[in-house]
Amino acid sequence: MANDDTRSGPLTAPGARMALWLVLLAAAGAFALTMGTRQTMGLFLSSLNTSTGLGLGSISLAFAFGQLWWGLTQPFAGAVADRIGTGRVILAGAVLVALGTFITPYMTSTAGLIFAIGVLAAGGAGMAGPSVLMAATARLVPPSRRGLASGVVNAGGSFGQFIMAPIAVALIASVGWANAMQWLGVLVLLALPAAWVLKGNSNALAAQAAAATGQKALTAREAIAQALATPGYRYLALGFLVCGFHVAFLATHLPGVIAACGLAPEVGGWALAVIGLFNIVGSLAMGWAVGRWRMKSLLSLLYATRGLAVLVFLLAPKTPAVVLVFAAVMGITFLSTVPPTAGLVAKMFGTANMAMLFGIVMLSHQVGGFLGAYLGGSVFQATGSYDWVWYIDIVLALGAALVHLPIRESPLPRPAVAA
Predict the structure, then answer these.
(1) What is the CATH number of domain 22-192+214-403?
(2) Is 6 exposed, middle or buried (0-12, 13-18, 19+ CB in 10 A)?
(3) What are the pLDDT digits (tens) for 303-358?
(4) Is CB count within 10 Å lower at the N or C end of the chain?
(5) Class of residue 322 by CB neighbours under 10 A (exposed 0-12, middle 13-18, buried 19+)
């Protein structure tokens, strides 16, 4: 299969400043639409339960499978994007998200929900997800601006959650939950132009770097073997597993947590929106901080902050104001782990195989996401409370804060080209 085109390296031509912002707008916009749609699905959980009568545990299984499948698709989507082209991968991903979201209201069985939410929508979001989008921006922007660029792209996903949650609430109130979900599926198609802006692949860039430095360009298998043999990469994946647990539990069950506290359903929608709004702040701040402090230290600080915030929330009275303040703190740390995590992958291994290697780390993230989404529903169904999930989350956050400290922030040596 032919490549998207031959464009691979950073934008250096006259007018590159405008082209740079076009790249960031395309990547951030695509992430806003796919992430925003996925992160508002928790608002439909109660309606799906009422409509299908399947039970909260069965529906949570579909959401949990979606978390896992979103991660499973990313290493493969990244490998395809690295070699065949980013544009085709984003195009296919956006179409699948739209299709899966649109047909979900017609599903009346657990298997049907797993197919629509877990396979089509989540798989498409993985194809047009952070591993592909972050790698595309890392390839197209100068190295000195990669930290800021990753923060802007990540903020796009947060903005999508901020804007999509109120839209979903308004649509549910005006046209019903089923039509509201289908309208969200149609809105995802606005991401299609990003496929053209971000087209290209990393093959040419890797070949140029190898020729300039006399170092061998690694194959996909060699890059994976080198990464898995690197302790810092494994620690990074473990920490991101905890991030996935936390993010998926909040995205799927925070409206339920708020309802269990006796608060109005609208508070759940606004809490998700506040998370998205403040994650914009956190993502941009983290993109700025990545170039100034050690990325592993920033990650440790983020995870420690999460654990402390959850502990305070458990002890505080459950009022709308407390919930929104908690959502704001969670928003600052919600996805701001992505820029330093992606930055560490790029720093250690370069950009040639970044989409694939970051995709593997994202897979670990989504294993945690599966556990967070599934355990949230299962524990509540068994105990009538979310408390034990919060306790697990605090312990995991502390472990993640510690596991990043031994990571070495330095590029790994590449094998020399044989004479």
Answers:
(1) 1.20.1250.20
(2) exposed
(3) 999 999 999 999 988 888 998 999 999 888 887 888 888 888 888 887 677 778 88
(4) C
(5) middle
